[in-house]
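Q: How would the structure tokens look for this protein?
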Amino acid sequence: MILVYRDEILLTVIIVVLLFFVLLITKQVIKKFSILRAINPNRRKLIRNLSYLFHYLIAGIALVVVWGVKFEEFSVFISSILAVIGVAFFAQWSILSNLTASIILFFSHPVRIGDRIRVLDKDFDWTGEVKDITGFYLFMITDTGENITLPTSLVIQKGIQIMSKLPEGQIDDKEEV
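A: Here is the predicted structure in token form.
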């Protein structure tokens, strides 16, 4: 019985070993990138988990192909799954957009935890210090002491001005008001 599936077993082992090495390399690359950019370990973990999910999906598709699932059956299965996921994501589109915005913030946006920023919005004057950036939200404390939670997709959509730090005496004066 094993001889009948010898090629499939060999390819499965190759895919699993290759997946293991790709995950190790991905972990190291994300770790080095986040250390170079001084990124919070919690954000690094989120991005690492999302990349792992992507790699597992690719490996799963490769295993399905190796084990000989007919393309017609596989395409019907995948289209059914994608239809259900598509309806679910359309109902919760903000979740998907916030996760995507979080990945963009991680790799290419200059805002970091501890930065003093101003959100450029005509209706609101939000100026303060970034306290945390998660997969869905940016948390900041304004100069007036308010705790503001902004969805990461809003941070990408609105202009953000990175400002210089306030002098220590000025911060103490603001807290006393």
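Residues 171-177 have pLDDT under 50 and may be disordered.

Residues 113 and 130 are 5 Å apart (CA to CA).

Upvote if useful.
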